[in-house]
Amino acid sequence: MLLLTWDKTGIYAEDPETVDKLKKNYFGTVKGKKVVLNIEDALYLINFQNAECKHGNKIVGFNELASEFANRDPRFFIKYNAFRDWRDRGLIVKRIDEIKLTKTKPKPKRYPMRPWVKKNLKTRIFWYPDSMFSVLEDKEIGKQLFSDHWIGQFGIYKQDRGELLKLDFMETIFLGKYLDVEIYDVNRKKIIAPDEVMKQVKDVREYAEQLYNVYEDWRLRGYVIKTGFKFGTHFRIYFPGASPTKEGKWIHSKHVIHVFPKEQKLIISEWARAVRVAHGVKKTFLLSVPELKKKDHVDYPTEFVAYRRKKTKSGWIRETPEDAPRYLLVSVSEDEHIGGAELASLLKKAESMGLEVLLSITDRETAITYYVLKKITLPGSKYESYEIEWMKP
């Protein structure tokens, strides 16, 4: 049996046999002949390692000990559950202040770029503001835009019939700005500027400007960016050079993008569902946070760093505090809300510590789902973008 003591100085073990077992499994911090424990260490040992904790002459149980600490932190149990799950997997998790960080910054993933070449098309598109679509009747220009740049939908989707090019509001604005196409408003019976289209859309579409800014950012770097509606996200993207006609058959995207405005907050369960849908159809999920500035970053509370396993000549072994930690472990629940600014701030904090962000989500059955967030570099982009991957430890 492991013997623990809880008094006004904290929670600790000084029984030699207990100390030896705790040291071998990297629980707590060694201080002289004692091992000083954090509350999550103690609760885990009581719950799963047959530990007995004494407060004076009284033996205290899980809830009695936990309740003394829970009132100091409203998210106490969520954090403990993340700690518990990682330990259950035979892996080590420590508080940040218990270890020494190497601060070797992880390298962001670099995406390719093919800059957009501005053109001047002598044509006109007809804008239907109530439907938020435009139509181009010029067959030759329509086919060129669709085949060479995959802008709009020529004819009927995935069918070889029809000669009209249909454009959504983002494609309409982009053509007006970068191909000098005339935009004719069918309601007002006159030519309008791309900015006027955006003004109309903003009146009825939340975050329309942020969506367009991300669309334009990727388009100007040569990417094809189309609706991601079928996959529960804002966009699906294709790398530079993709075409719906050049391959001889319809090609499928391998990436989707969700735009997460800095001031918007989403419930974790909805956000995670979009990631899982993307992974279910074998697509990489990208998150883009537009318009983020230095002053927007917040200090989101984090406590833990996590280790995984490493491959050696004798096989896979767990990493220990003698190794560099892998992740900044961030614990949340499915019923919490998180915003674009918070996620970006976590990435920045992890980067400064030489770690990747590992988001641990506790569901209502106390099961855990993990997502790794990795920063990506899109040359010339002024926006923050990340890959988010479901991870099974």
Describe this structure in words.
With 393 residues, this protein is of the alpha+beta class. It has three domains: 2-72, tRNA intron endonuclease, N-terminal domain (MutS, DNA mismatch repair protein, domain I), CATH 3.40.1170; 74-113 and 223-393, Trna Endonuclease, Chain: A, domain 1, CATH 3.40.1350; 116-220, tRNA intron endonuclease, N-terminal domain (MutS, DNA mismatch repair protein, domain I, 3-Layer(aba) Sandwich). The chain is built from ten helices and 27 strands. The protein has helices at 16-24, 39-48, 62-70, 76-88, 139-149, 169-178, 194-202, 208-219, 268-280, 340-352; strands spanning 2-7, 10-13, 29-31, 34-37, 51-55, 58-60, 93-95, 109-110, 124-128, 133-136, 153-154, 165-168, 182-185, 190-192, 224-227, 235-238, 255-259, 265-267, 284-289, 304-306, 309-312, 315-318, 327-333, 337-339, 356-362, 368-377, 384-391. Strands 7, 8, 15, 16, 17, 19, 20, 23, 25, 26 and 27 form an eleven-stranded mixed sheet that branches. The protein has a six-stranded mixed sheet with strand order 3-4-2-1-5-6. A hairpin with a 7-residue loop joins β15 (224-227) and β16 (235-238). The longest helix is centred in the first third of the chain and has 13 residues, at 76-88. The two termini are 29 Å apart. The relative contact order is 0.12.
